[in-house]
Amino acid sequence: MEADTQHIAIAAIKRRLELLRRIGKAIIEAQEEVQLLNNCCQQIVEFGGYCTAWVGMRKSLEPECISIVASFGCAEICLQEQEKLWKNDNPGNPWPWQIALQQKRHVVVNELKNSPYSSLLGDAMQRTGCSSLLSIPLIGEKQILGVLTVAGKEENSFNEEEIVFLRELADELVYGITAVHRKKEQERSYEEARNLLVLMRKQAVEILLKDQFLRGVFESIQDGISVLDKEYNILSVNPAMNKWYSHVLPLEGKKCFEVYHGINQPCKVCPTTKALLSGTPCRELIKHEGPDGELRGWFEVFALPYRNSLTGKISGVIEHVRNVTESIVLEKKLREEKERAQHYLDIVRVMILVLDKDANVVLINKKGLEILGCTEEEAIGKNWIDHFIPEKFRQDVRGVFRKIMSGDVQEVEYFENPVIRKDGQERLIAWYNTYIRNSSGDIILLLTSGEDVTEARKVSEELFKKSQELSRSNAELERFAFVISHDLKEPLRMIASYLQLLDRRYQDKLDKDAKEFIYYAVDGASRMQAMINGLMDYSQVSLGKVIFEHLNASDVLEQAIFNLKVSINESKALVTYDLLPMVWVDAVQLIRLFQNLIGNSVKFRSHETPRVHISVREEEREWVFLVKDNGVGFDPKHKSEIFDVFKRLHSRDYPGTGIGLSICKKIVERHGGKIWAESEIAKGATFYFSIPKLPAN
Predict the structure, then answer these.
(1) Which of the listed CATH numbers 3.40.47.10, 3.30.450.20, 3.40.50.700, 3.40.50.2300 matches domain 346-452?
(2) Which residues of 575-585 are buried (b: 16+ CB within 10 A; e: fewer)?
(3) pTM of this prediction exceeds 0.85
(4) End-to-end Cα spacing for the chain
(5) Residues contacting 482, CB < 8 A, separation 6+
(6) φ/ψ of residue 93, rounded to 5
(7) H or E element that contains 445
(8) Cis ω on the peptide bond leading into residue 91 (within 30° of 0)?
(9) What pLDDT is attached to residue 84?
(10) What is the pLDDT of residues 629-649, one digit of tens each?
(11) Rounded to the nearest 5 degrees, what angle is found at the Cα of 257, between the Cα atoms of 220 and 326?
């Protein structure tokens, strides 16, 4: 059960990482908003395992004015029934996406068939198999951009973990939309600047400043433009430059390095200086720092020398300044995202491998290289089957690979085959495969994860052999214990019976010593029989099967108290307990555990009325139960011995065999827990035992 849970968790993590990687790749490659959103919807459906995904974008300031711009999956619902989807005549029962937009929060409907929307979406649900739905608003820096809606095949498709993941994915979409917009804006700005520089290079600066059309262009450019002479004096600037440096106006007539950088000489890295010296356009990426040295941004500076129209000599430089801070930040984030994705691949403790249609290695992570014992250069581009599969398995593996790439084998189907390391050693790998498709739906790559199960398989086989041997040994022990107990109990019974008969028949003829001898002999036989019974109980606990059930520990405790009713009443003991949790236990064994511990507290009582209290505290992975009493206690130096078989810390005034606590220890250990005790002489004792929150294997 635990292994299955782990495999499911690992598969979910891998699915989400791969989906994030694909979304990140789509963001990097996207040139248009619609292209990005359609690609992301496709990835969400195809790799995320959902029925459909669609995105609606705002057309005006009203949240309801939204049109569907991208979809994948059940496209006929998103496009042909757009009017039905986005308009609702009942304002008291808005659609989930309307709520998401109006309240700026995600809205989940995990049971569509039992929701108010079932009658409106009945036909669509039947055609598509959609059973649950999640709408997430796409919120930009200043306004709501739109909404992402995802429909699941199953009811309750959207648990808390999945919602958090899809909200993060929605944030990535917002980031991608913003990145596409900024990229387009930067491209337009760069194109405008480039066109302007071409015009400015063809004409002298005097004509440029007099020409009304070019002046309009000059003033309308959103990037900063400065016209400088050969002495770095500012001759003219456009409105954007005035806006940037409004605190030192006017700019004309001042040195560029004084007003722009606050220094008294040209910058060390200055494209204007290079342009004046070389007579050719120059470009530099310059950091903009504050007086305290704090980085405030990045500027891309183009310096274009202009010449006197009469002499042809360089008269000065036109500086075109672009604030590229956002672009650099964007590039850095994209680079970090790529590195993070690669990091995720590298920290995964399984081999991650991507093969093209010819079985050539396209990508492999560090764990894969470690398993193969080679470098990335020795693996990338190599044919996987020819280089890394043992010769006797190549034909079979090649046949399976062809079936996978043709779509004849289901995704994530499990396979095992050996690989050959660089040093010639073979390792057994367990594979889980999935496809990577292009926009047309064709399989172009194989993504597979492989776990080295060589050692695990050896251990599994060895454990199987040992378990068989242990089963045989346990069976023999059970038979031995039964035979021994039967053979010992019967003679002891006869000895005790005949001694008691002797006492009754000849009591008038026996002196005091003889009667005392008979008493001690009968008592010894009785104690021996009790010890045999205790050993049988101990062996049954040790060898018996533990049947785990999810039970209320309070109910189990009440049964144990009921079984001890006679001794509790005779001793007038007060047994109390707190509210106990649900636990995975063997009911019979847990009853016996409580019964032994409470019975022990009642038996080893002091002159005070016995008081026993059972409580519990919650740890990260287990419940810790406490059984506290006010009895005679014991010397702390013996706390490590009290759970040993036949170990007795008190005099014979207290009946018992010394096996009860040993049975308690065995019960707790068979449940995967621990037991211990704390005490002082005459100050009571507290027994602790732990029970894991999940059943022990």
Answers:
(1) 3.30.450.20
(2) bebeebeebbb
(3) no
(4) 9
(5) none
(6) -135, 70
(7) strand 443-452
(8) no
(9) 47
(10) 999 888 888 777 888 755 555
(11) 50
